Amino acid sequence: MNKFEVHEQLDKVILVSDIHENWQALKKIVDLPEYGKSDYTLVFLGDYTDANGSNLHEPIKVINFIMDQVKNHGALAIHGNHDDMLYGTAIGDSDKFFNWGNNGILETQELLGLTANEVNIELTKNELNEKYSEYIDFLDEIPYAIEDQKRLFVHAGIDWTKNNYHDTAVEDLIWIREKYFFSNFSAASLYDPVKRPIVDKAWHRNTSNKVIVAGHTPSYFLSADQSNPIVEMRNNQNDFPRYDIDGGSHSADIEAALNILILDKEGKEIRRDRLLA
């Protein structure tokens, strides 16, 4: 698979991230007025499975819908960290398997009709390849980031310490948090209520010269707003905007929605929407 999938120039895009098995919200995406129009591309920014805090988990419907949209309706999709753990398990990566054990493996196995197990990678690997070979092949084909001349779409973010953001490690593309968001990241901790930099946000400057859209971090941790709205970040008024669109679907402090961000081909915001389960 490619780390970055490069397009010369996409048209307008409909962006959604961190679905986390929330089929009841995701299925409403087809009701958006922009959906299905030839000048709009639907882009999924990762984390299709694994969830917390809800009884509305329907991973099979979610992954089947996403595969169909990509294969038959021109949509695009990338890996998130949860997709990477499932895929890594399917190809025998024990580190990915045991990390998945800390991130929702047992419930997802049950919902996928697999044997609940967090110690025997061969068992889960074999069951995934036997029952979900089409999905494993799909994950093998999709990239970790998508970009064109004006915009960059990634699950978590990029590493500003690299001279070229294309040198960002795959693990950072799907896991990075503080050092992507903040210029003072050494003092920031999104999960420490004392250090959580909600009031005094020193956003890192966007040196990519592109509008960046990512998910991965429920926006509550950046805004202190429990409704998990889309967060726009700029270091200054001339900075290229970055967006965190993770609406906290089945993964935040409270139950939340899927955020939708729609951009024009220049990266300018057209509108926002929210899909509720």
UniProtKB/TrEMBL annotation:
GO terms for molecular function: bis(5'-nucleosyl)-tetraphosphatase (asymmetrical) activity; bis(5'-nucleosyl)-tetraphosphatase (symmetrical) activity; phosphatase activity. Signal peptide: none annotated. The keyword rRNA processing does not apply. The keyword DNA-binding does not apply. One of its GO terms (biological process) is RNA decapping. Residues 12-220 form the Calcineurin-like phosphoesterase domain. Keywords: Hydrolase. InterPro entries: Ap4A_hydrolase, Calcineurin-like_PHP, Metallo-depent_PP-like. It holds the Pfam family Metallophos. Its EC number is 3.6.1.17. PANTHER family: METALLOPHOSPHOESTERASE (PTHR42850), ZINC-DEPENDENT ENDOPOLYPHOSPHATASE (PTHR42850:SF4). This is Bis(5'-nucleosyl)-tetraphosphatase PrpE. It comes from Oenococcus oeni (Leuconostoc oenos). The lineage of its organism: Bacteria, Bacillati, Bacillota, Bacilli, Lactobacillales.
